[in-house]
């Protein structure tokens, strides 16, 4: 029997195929998902990984065996699956391992309306059922097997996104898009169709073996090709999507990466304007100081939350927020069922740039006001002891300390957050300051305490 503790994560199911899971387990997951949600129907999609079609089909067979009818939408991005879940008001399953290497695959699950399924919202129950069935045999058959139908949602998905951003008056732009052989190569041509864009495609061929580079733009090494091409083409900007195309990273006309916090602030300002200059915007606690500042300047109310899409989506639903953003380039929209879509954020960037004559670097400068370290990871066996050393060293009347998610220390001119990884023996450090010298000093002081020999 597979060790499900290794593949059932906090927010999804993910592991190597076939070593950690296979089509047999996928079928059990499908049956358990139908059982736990009580769904009479659900929607299933998959990415371009070689194992994805077989796993998705097995999952669908398991769900149909419990009486749930399945709408298979085939190749899609994760946010296209969220669109289908929202528009059809059905629970959904997306087969992808996002930015992980080719040998991995996984399942992102949601209830009707793209509501997330995590450990506390059904995933633990699904795991328990699969474990019991794997030991005791398949569940007893139901009286009626669900039907299987297919549906193409790509055009409807693209049309919905285009209703949420006014792109009618933008000037012609030259944009380089690196799809990383992932699902952006499937969605970008349809979403961008008809716009005044000179599109320079990179790695649009769907290939789950990722022959050019990993589809993980969070790693700077995977942006190098895009940066070089933007400069060579004298393009206005570059866009990079991860493997399942739910995250989008932006490169300016100089080939310089634009921090996701700056994109969060830019989109927040636009969404507030679109909603009459008022509304709540969610941001996690390691986005830049710029984000809440810009939100307040544009009439909105910023709300700070923990890192992680389940926390963001829960707070979006609770507060009725119009938008949410994370440092990892996940962007959430009320009008997209509170789900994350990098494609919609990309359309906002194109609209903002195309509505004015200046270059992207000048446009985003107003949203990128501080100096950040980026995320610095340290391998630490005793994370609690290291965190306590840092807390004691920085404790003083001149700083504020909170423990919403890890340890956050805030002073007048800088702040840092130190938080443990959920899955690895790592401590993750993010530092921001008003100038580079202060950022470097604080970063190095914290790392010196964390990395004690």
Automatic annotation (TrEMBL):
Its cofactor is Mg(2+). The keyword Phosphoprotein applies. It comes from the Bacteria. The keyword Lipid metabolism does not apply. Keywords: Isomerase, Magnesium, Metal-binding, Phosphoprotein. Residues 6-133, 156-255, 265-370 form the Alpha-D-phosphohexomutase alpha/beta/alpha domain. Residues 375-447 form the Alpha-D-phosphohexomutase C-terminal domain. InterPro entries: A-D-PHexomutase_a/b/a-I (IPR005844), A-D-PHexomutase_a/b/a-I/II/III (IPR016055), A-D-PHexomutase_a/b/a-II (IPR005845), A-D-PHexomutase_a/b/a-III (IPR005846), A-D-PHexomutase_C (IPR005843), A-D-PHexomutase_C_sf (IPR036900), Alpha-D-phosphohexomutase_SF (IPR005841). Belongs to the phosphohexose mutase family. This is Phosphomannomutase/phosphoglucomutase.
